[in-house]
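Reviewer comment 2.1 asked that we show a complete input and output for one of the modelled complexes. We chose the pyridoxal-5'-phosphate case, as it is the one discussed in the main text.
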Amino acid sequence: MTLIAQRLQTIRSALPAGVTLVAVSKTYGAEQVQEAYDAGQRDFGENRVQELETKAHILPADCRWHLIGHLQSNKVRFIAPYVHLIHSVDSLALLKEISKQAVKCGRTIDCLLQMHIALEETKYGMNEDELFGLLHVCAGAPLPNVRIRGLMGMATFTDDQVRIRQEFVALKNCFTRAKNKYFAHDSDFDQLSMGMSSDWQIAVEEGSTLVRIGSSIFGTR
Ligand SMILES: *Cc1c(COP(=O)(O)O)cnc(C)c1O
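Response of the prediction step:
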């Protein structure tokens, strides 16, 4: 068994049923992604459209590609025909563009709304007011061919486990408020993307349904 296969197995065996492992393959070569694929992994995350495109063309067609990094509106059209889930929607303008491109492709695109939960200024994402503003608009005038499946967030890059947990709890609470207010009768709003190599155990304890793990599978970048 390869090292990548071993690491995948270790992580998978620790994940509760209902939590999806997204193997974050950014910066790693297609051979390593193939190795994970051969070990049964199908969900892969990339943070750049160009790199996602390149790997999606090389890897087998049944891979499910997740866009987890910032997405510019003018790049949506490249991934719209096949992307599995976009984790990083943080504006109504972007959601509208995804809707437009999804209509053109004749498919529905699943999206998560990215929340800013960390202390760092540089990370993308919305605050709760912005989230509820967006959801309010979408509730009044639903966008065709996009499905808002839940929320995504990245905790502060810190050793302070208490802080990380607080941020995940805050994100889960925000998810619950959004669900109760806008998706009470919609079982499609059911995904919470949180947790990376350094903090996925805490994220799972606090209700994550999608963990995005790169270096713990593929090695240090
Ligand atoms: C790179 C990245 C990850 C994975 O990070 P690791 O520390 O390698 O597990 C998860 N989420 C996002 C948004 C990323 O950009």
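The pocket of pyridoxal-5'-phosphate is lined by residues 24, 26, 47, 68-69, 154, 196-198, 212-216 (CB under 6 Å). We note this here for comparison with the apo prediction described in Section 3.2.
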